[in-house]
């Protein structure tokens, strides 16, 4: 998620019924965005295409999930955040734990 450009998009998918039906898929995405210090907007949450039919007597068949996320446009403090990340990467490359 750190690699998403400002105003960029991220499409991610899951084919795990356990993740989709329990709500864990969105929880994982929320946690990842927190760890990446990104505030993402959900543009789309979708299931399978119409040609992948679902038998109503077998709800476990609803396992395909597609989520489209967007990083909002440049926000205040973005340059400072980028500068901080660049400094952190340089310190790590030199083997210095904290700058």
TrEMBL record:
Organism: Riccia fluitans
Official protein name in the record: Uncharacterized protein
